[in-house]
Amino acid sequence: MTRTSRAAEEAAAELRSRTGVDTYDVALVMGSGWAPAADLLGDSEHELPVAELPGFLRPAVEGHSGILRSISTGERHLLAFLGRNHLYEGHGTDPVVHGVRTAVAAGARTVVLTNAAGGINPAYTVGSPVLIADHINMTARSPLSGPSFVDLTDVYSAQLRKIARTVEPDLAEGVYAAMPGPQYETPAEIRMLRAVGADLVGMSTVLEAIAAREAGAQVLGMSLVTNIAAGLADANLDHEEVLEAGRESAAVVGRLLADIVAKI
User: Fold this and answer.
1) Are 61 and 85 in contact, with CB atoms under 8 Å apart?
2) What is the arithmetic mean of pLDDT over 118-144?
3) What's the sign of the alpha-carbon dihedral 6, 11, 12, 18?
């Protein structure tokens, strides 16, 4: 057992002790602007700060509360992380992916990753949910170490995306580019990303998706377009505007997410 998987097993054991839930079915990471959507997922039976579990750090970013919810929906149990750690917080890759590793260690075979993203594809409008079909890792980092050769051909499950489109047939999908941050991208960087095939840009998700696939979980990724990427509109970028766009879209994307999760 690796050091990181051992830490995840320890956190999962403490989670079971605190919640009384032996096995979770689906885990969700709620990115910037997505936290209100968690209220629509089901009845929250337990709620605790993630920092109370082994190996977790409290997120340092506004809009990421660091709260973990254990949610019951009928006979299924969901685990919702209200916020995440980011690579730019300076603690390395392990804290970034500790949540998904803990969730899989607690039984979750499906991981749903949500984020706020800048829209590069001109077809996207602010407030639009977009399925992630693939990613481009521009962080120059990986959560894996040693000869762990993980196949990422289907990193974002085609089957889960198909299920999502049974709920909303017109859901767009695209390629998400992960940048290290914390600075927003320059217009030149956005032109580069557009040239290599990116439709969305953000500072999260990709490392978590890699770790989830290494652990054997299926991944569904969804972005909420909260701003038009740098240089593509006559506006500067601001984190508070990202959060506000999320708040304005929370009811719609929350209902959509809950309906998708119900079918997984």
Assistant:
1) no
2) 95
3) positive
Helix residue ranges per DSSP H, 72-113: 93-105
CB proximity list for 169: less than 8 A, separation 6 or greater: none
Which residue type occupies 67?
A: I
In the structure encoding, which two tokens stand for residue 232, read together? 């593509």
H or E segment to which residue 226 belongs = strand 218-228
pLDDT tier, 36 (very low <50, low <70, confident <90, very high otherwise): confident
Containing 200, the helix (H) or strand (E) segment is strand 200-202
Catalytic residue among 115, 223, 227, 249: 227
Query: What is the four-CA torsion angle of 174, 175, 179, 185, rounded to 10 degrees?
Result: -60
The active-site residue out of 10, 13, 60, 89 is 89
Q: Give phi and psi for 13, each to the nearest 5.
A: -65, -45
Tokens coding 259: 């309906």
Secondary structure (H, E, C), 127-182: CCEEEEEEEEECCCCCCCCCCCCCCCCCCCCHHHHHHHHHHCCCCEEEEEEECCCC
Catalytic-residue membership of 204: yes
Confirm whether 142 is a catalytic residue: no
For residue 179, give every residue at least 6 positions away whose Cβ sits within 8 Å of its Cβ, in sequence order, or none.
138, 139, 185, 189, 201, 202, 203
Across 89-103, 188-202, 242-256, least confident range: 242-256
pLDDT exceeds cutoff 80 at 234: no
Shortest CA distance to 55 belongs to which of 79, 23, 91? 91
Higher pLDDT, 242 or 256: 256
Tokens of 245: 């766009």
User: Is 135 assigned a catalytic role?
Assistant: no
